[in-house]
């Protein structure tokens, strides 16, 4: 995609374990434009967070990028040194981590953690950085920002810590924001405020957002396009309206079916049988075949390609002709 802000091509990340080296994500292809929100959705263990940590070059010591490219503004991030990546991370690309209570340093005040990034990347004085940080805290809807500036993370609620994380992520006006389950463990009202805030910021800054979630309600609220991930692979990618109106992959259909409708009166909820396989025991062929009601011998024997249904819709499934 020529006008892409971010273009991930054939990304594979492996982890070294006691049993050997295994791929956590395999041949992932994603693109994102400025001003667009791409949601990556899937169950826990599907590879969503590993994809984002690969992008940020924040993999643990046991993990490494085995192949592929991560093109951000015509620069391949995979080839950058640690020092070169440090200049991009936190400035041009920022991340909101899944658990703000553990992502924030408990021994530093909220304000000092925000001003650190501003001073490093923007070369601002301590006073200028404090003024900018206070304004950011106000921008993300925190009351009494001067007080919160001097507060420690443990003194705040989960929702307030998440807002501090967002302020920190926005401190250098990034062009790409990665949000990893930004509303997990927050109550419904706080979740709605956080999502509204992210939408507003995206429009104000014309920023691209890569949003990782397992919540289809968040997808419906936030996404322009959606990539469905299963067992380390993208199995379906399309615009958000098509995803809900005309899903093609059996896994996507299962995820949507698992969401209880508002009018449902009985207590029986649908769930996809089985569970996501571990990286050390991936099934042959289509990785979803052990859990798929439509699997054939071909699904077990050979892995399908990610094929185009149209210019905006790609699906990794052998049984599309049969209308699965």
Describe the 3D structure.
The protein has 324 residues and is α/β, with parallel strands linked by helices. It folds into two domains: 6-92 and 174-322, P-loop containing nucleotide triphosphate hydrolases (Rossmann fold), CATH 3.40.50; 100-173, no CATH class. The protein has twelve helices and twelve strands. It has helices at residues 48-55, 82-88, 100-103, 110-122, 126-139, 145-149, 158-169, 188-205, 216-222, 240-245, 250-257, 297-301; strands at residues 6-17, 20-32, 37-41, 63-72, 75-76, 93-96, 176-180, 208-213, 225-230, 233-239, 306-310, 313-316. Strands 6-7-8-3-9-10-12-11 form an eight-stranded mixed beta sheet, with helices on both faces. A four-stranded antiparallel beta sheet has the order 2-1-4-5, with helices on one face. The radius of gyration is 21 Å and the shape is globular.
Summarize model confidence as the mean pLDDT.
Answer: 91
Cα-based radius of gyration, to the nearest Å? 21 Å
Structural class: alpha/beta
For the biggest sheet, the summary is: 8 strands, mixed
CATH topology name of the largest domain, in short, is Rossmann fold
CA-based shape = globular
Strand order of the largest sheet: 6-7-8-3-9-10-12-11
**Which percent range fits the helix content?**
25-40%
What is the number of domains? 2
> Count of helices?
12
Give the class-level CATH name of the largest domain: Alpha Beta
Number of strands: 12
């Amino acid at each position: 995609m020529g006008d892409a802000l971010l273009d991930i091509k054939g990304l594979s990340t492996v982890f070294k374990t006691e049993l050997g080296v295994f791929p956590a994500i395999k041949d992932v292809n994603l693109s994102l434009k400025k001003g667009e929100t791409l949601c990556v959705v899937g169950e826990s263990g599907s590879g969503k967070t590993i994809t984002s940590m690969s992008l940020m070059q924040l993999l643990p010591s046991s993990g490494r990028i085995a192949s592929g490219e991560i093109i951000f503004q015509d620069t391949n991030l995979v080839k950058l040194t640690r020092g070169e990546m440090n200049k991009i991370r936190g400035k041009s690309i920022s991340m909101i981590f899944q658990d703000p209570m553990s992502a924030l340093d408990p021994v530093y005040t909220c304000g000092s953690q925000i001003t650190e990034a501003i001073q490093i990347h923007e070369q601002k004085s301590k006073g200028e950085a404090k003024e900018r940080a206070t304004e950011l805290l106000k921008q993300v809807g925190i009351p009494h920002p001067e007080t919160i500036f001097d507060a420690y993370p443990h003194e705040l609620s989960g929702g307030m810590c998440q807002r501090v994380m967002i302020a920190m992520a926005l401190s250098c006006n990034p062009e790409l924001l990665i949000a990893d389950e930004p509303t997990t463990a927050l109550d419904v009202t706080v979740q709605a405020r956080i999502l509204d805030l992210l939408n507003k910021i995206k429009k104000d800054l014309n920023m691209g957002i890569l949003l990782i979630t397992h919540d289809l309600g968040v997808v419906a609220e936030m996404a322009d396009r959606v990539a469905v991930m299963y067992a380390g692979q993208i199995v379906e990618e399309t615009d958000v309206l098509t995803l809900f109106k005309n899903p093609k992959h059996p896994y996507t259909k299962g995820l949507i079916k698992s969401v209880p409708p508002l009018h449902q009166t009985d207590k029986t909820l649908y769930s996809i049988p089985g569970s996501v396989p571990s990286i050390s025991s991936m099934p042959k062929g289509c990785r979803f075949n052990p859990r798929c009601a439509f699997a054939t011998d071909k699904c077990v024997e050979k892995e399908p390609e990610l094929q185009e249904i149209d210019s905006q819709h790609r699906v990794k499934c052998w049984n599309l002709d049969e209308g699965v």
